[in-house]
Hints:
Elements: H1 9-37, E1 45-57, E2 70-80, E3 85-99, H2 106-111, E4 114-129, E5 143-156, E6 159-162, E7 165-168, E8 186-199, E9 204-215, H3 230-237, H4 239-245, E10 270-281
Antiparallel strand pairs: 1-2, 1-10, 2-3, 3-4, 4-5, 5-8, 6-7, 8-9, 9-10
Helix pairs in contact: 3-4
Amino acid sequence: MILFCCPxxxxxxxxxxxVSILKIIGLGLAICFSAITVSQAQEGWEVGGYAGLAxxxxxLSPRFSLRQPGAALGxxxxxxxxxxxxxRIAGSFANIGGSDxxxxxxxxxxxxxxxxxxxxxxxxxxxFNFQDFHNNTRDEKPVSPYLLAGLGxxxxxxxxxxxxxxxSLQTLGTEGQARGEEYNLVTGAxxxxxxxxxxxxxxxxxxxEMTGRMTFTDxxxxxxxxxxxxxxxxxxxxxxxxxxSDRSVELGERIGRPGRQRGDxxxxxxxxxxxxxxxxxxxxxxxPAY
Length: 290
């Protein structure tokens, strides 16, 4: 018989990290917005796109790892207030996923859950350049590191494959939710990240960026609380729902007893982008002096 130790220490660690990050975000936003109010130069707009990798962190991938990355794509419009401060709005698509099969923990491996999800996101962030960038002055630098902070809203839909068929997990109530009590597929996130901008010429620049999303949901992976009663789940949503609620039996030993911990309900899920982007700058028109 195997004894399993359910993960609880990482929940406290995750909460401490979230609190610290939120404090940093609050301070960063206060500094950036106060600086914007005193900014005088108007440096115009940029538009661009980016592509790269997306990585999820949560109950099915509690430790940061580059395993099972998905694609990330997006486009953005950026307002440059001066050489230091910018405001950016963006639309993004990502594919994320996780699996207990890649875990090093005995409990997680026996739990045997997995998911994939498409994510559609809209975001608004403030960027702060550490060097003057796009400022049309002698102090302008061709390369600048930058930080960003902001908010986003996104739609997600965790899915899993069973007997060769892919199912949307939210509608199946895999933790015992009755019909109409399923979690919301639209929620928000706090964005925090940074990168480096590289000027190619007055119009074109490259943007290399890493940005994390601390979400407001713990169901990004369809795993949060405790195992439900398989009979009730089958009655609410059918036999497939009951099978997907506890997949440990596929490995030979059922560990999902009603009320037993299935996931970590004390922390939220997160995902991260690693992207390379290109931006086109609309140069401001300058009237000639006579």
